[in-house]
Design goal:
Largest interface: A-B, 18 and 10 residues
Low-confidence stretches of chain B: none
Radius of gyration of chain A: 19 Å
Largest sheet of chain A: 8 strands, parallel
Number of domains of chain A: 1
Distance between the termini of chain A: 24 Å
Distance between the termini of chain B: 13 Å
CATH architecture of chain A: Alpha-Beta Barrel
Shape of chain A: globular
Largest sheet of chain B: 8 strands, parallel, barrel
CATH superfamily of chain A: Dihydropteroate synthase-like
CATH topology of chain A: TIM Barrel
Low-confidence stretches of chain A: none
Number of helices of chain A: 11
Mean pLDDT of chain A: 96
Number of helices of chain B: 10
Structural class of chain A: alpha/beta
Oligomer: heterodimer
Strand order of the largest sheet of chain B: 1-2-3-4-5-6-7-8
Strand content of chain B: 5-15%
Number of strands of chain A: 10
Strand order of the largest sheet of chain A: 8-7-6-5-4-3-10-9
Radius of gyration of chain B: 18 Å
Number of strands of chain B: 8
């Protein structure tokens, strides 16, 4: 006797976010991508569809990262000194779906680079690669408002994904993105209530809900990952049950979280008993990513090429109907 | 909670006048206002004074459908009037209503099947409205089993325990609330439930307050749908808040607005 499993009937689906604009749509991207659009829980194809496979964005910084461990820097070699070269390497050699450009050098206590310099970098990276671009500020609220507005203008029409809009700082970025035809990342501090609130605030400005990605903030394996999982699962269930203000696709910045924990970044001299750091770090990152896929991540922002490679295989396997 | 707007009812003088004078604007205005203020469905009742209720129903259904997308809840004691509406309904309609009497069930359930409509079953029969929850459950059981026999999808069946005015039948309010809970054990999946809300405050001095207090309590007892005035903003806010507290929606500071953005 076969047992028939109970199937959920979902009434809503996740919004489909278009990333990048091709020539016909006013941009210069070789190919636009889509994220989200699910009408089922992750990979539960019996209950609905996942029209788009989860995407992987690789991080590129506008300044060589000082605190990345050797195991993480090694695969990129000299390209770390030039964001355009770094981005090319990610796309050509490591098969990144898209590039996440972090404008770290704008940090006042780092290099304090100007909005003009940042905008120039965005233009250069757009020229260097044909994939869609995610653009992230340095994390200093006031500086980001200046820098990101300028970058938004410089990339006008390219439909980049800009971040981050937060509950107390969303207006400037949202206005720029609307004016220049970009999408936006709504950030919340591992809090589903605030995630919903930020989405409402942004859409209240007239922002199209189909152009928002939610960044629920994340944690690495061993560092609160299961809490993040439950938050994301709750949001996704609400979306499938009809909550339009939680129906945005998830973007998960796991690279920065994973590579700050000691299990991922400790060198062979610090923890010889933990094995080869060249394998350990990427494994830590890939394992975190695999969990985030099950939680509903639509875009993974990652760092190490080996982790990216492994997770791409995982996605391919999971997407088999 | 499924909200069924109650305002297009010939019992109201203005609506009766609009029907008599074929005033499309007045009816469409009411339809739009209710839909904009959160009605998921609109009740349509031609009222007692209409000379040709079938024609009035046809005109109302056509007029409303020109203005709004919302599905309709066709409200009449006469099956022919309901059928006149069913024939024209563009979206899945709800029949309002059958009682637990065989002749009603045998006429209206086939109509529901034929037009792929849902149906409201009132837990009463020719002998009147029951005094207690037990008799209400008995009627509910009868209605549900008839629906099952006729091959209705139980997801399309709403049981109405019949709300009575609290100023004349005070003990009935609690019986109705308890019934809402007891109906849940009748079948698996359980039947949906509905109340005609404003009856509870009929003839009282604090109509709005009584309506919204009762609605919140009924929500806590598992109520699935209500026929009410969606233009009563305090009432709608109370309903949205009750559902929030019951965990039906995820909290955020703008939860009232979030609900309305649905």
């Amino acid at each position: 006797m076969t047992i028939e499993l109970v199937k959920e009937k979902w009434v809503n689906k996740v919004n489909e976010l278009v990333l990048g604009a091709e020539k016909a749509r006013g941009g210069t991207r070789a190919k636009a991508l889509k994220a989200g659009g699910e009408s089922c829980l992750p990979f539960v194809f019996q209950e609905g569809d996942m029209p788009n496979r989860p995407l992987i964005a690789m991080e590129v910084w506008d300044i060589e990262p000082a605190d990345w461990p050797q195991a993480l820097k090694a695969p990129f070699g000299k390209s770390l000194k030039d964001p355009s070269e770094w981005a090319k390497k990610c796309v050509q050699d490591f098969k990144a779906d898209l590039i996440c450009l972090t404008l770290e050098s704008a940090l006042p206590e780092l290099k304090n680079s100007t909005p003009n310099e940042a905008a120039k970098t965005v233009e250069n990276v757009l020229k260097a690669v044909g994939c869609p671009l995610i653009v992230i500020g340095c994390g200093d609220k006031n500086k980001d408002n200046e820098v990101l507005s300028q970058c938004s203008q410089a990339a006008k029409g390219e439909n980049c994904l800009f971040g981050f809009a937060t509950q107390d700082n969303y207006k400037t970025l949202a206005a720029s993105c609307m004016a220049d035809g970009h999408s936006i990342i709504a950030e919340s501090p591992i809090d589903i209530n605030i995630a919903k609130q930020v989405n409402i605030l942004i859409t209240d400005m007239g922002f199209d809900a189909n152009r928002i990605a939610m960044h629920p903030t994340t944690g690495a394996l061993g560092y609160g990952m299961e809490y993040v999982y439950s938050i994301m699962e709750r949001g996704r269930l609400a979306a499938l049950m009809g909550d339009k203000m939680l129906s945005e696709p998830f973007i998960v910045f796991l690279g920065p979280e994973v590579w700050k924990v000691k299990e991922a970044k400790a060198g062979a001299d610090e923890a010889p008993e933990w094995g080869d750091p060249g394998k350990r770090g990427p494994l830590w990152e890939a394992t975190t990513a695999a969990c985030m896929l099950q939680a509903g991540a639509d875009i993974l922002v990652m760092r190490h090429p080996e982790a990216v490679k492994g997770v791409k295989n995982t996605i391919e396997e999971l997407m088999k109907r | 909670m499924l909200i069924i707007g109650e305002l297009i009812n010939g019992m109201y003088k203005q609506v009766a006048a609009a029907i008599a004078g074929k005033d499309k604007k007045a009816i469409q205005g009411l339809a739009r206002q209710q839909a904009e203020n959160g009605a998921n469905m609109l009740d349509v009742n031609v009222g007692p004074s209409s000379g040709n209720p079938q024609e009035a129903m046809k005109w109302l259904v056509e007029t409303i459908q020109e203005a709004v997308e919302a599905p309709l809840c066709l409200d009449s004691t006469k099956p022919a009037v309901i059928e006149a509406g069913l024939k024209l309904a563009k979206k899945k309609a709800l029949i309002n209503s059958t009682t637990a009497d065989d002749e009603k069930l045998n006429t209206l359930l086939p109509l529901a099947k034929r037009y792929n409509a849902g149906i409201i079953g009132l837990t009463m029969d020719k002998t009147g409205v029951p005094r207690d929850r037990y008799k209400r459950s008995e009627h509910a059981l009868k209605i549900i089993s008839s629906c099952m026999e006729q091959g209705m999808d139980l997801g399309d069946v709403y049981i109405d325990p019949i709300v009575l005015p609290v100023n004349v039948a005070q003990p009935q309010a609690l019986e109705v609330l308890e019934s809402l809970r007891e109906f849940k054990v009748i079948s698996d999946p359980p039947p949906k439930t509905v109340v005609g809300l404003s009856n509870v405050s009929q003839g009282t001095s604090e109509r709005n307050l009584i309506n919204r207090t009762f609605l919140v309590m009924a929500a806590a007892f598992g109520l699935g749908a209500a026929i009410l005035d969606p233009l009563d903003k305090d009432l709608m806010d109370a309903m949205i808040t009750a559902e929030l507290i019951l965990g039906k929606n995820i909290y955020c500071d703008s939860y009232l607005e979030a609900y309305r953005k649905k």
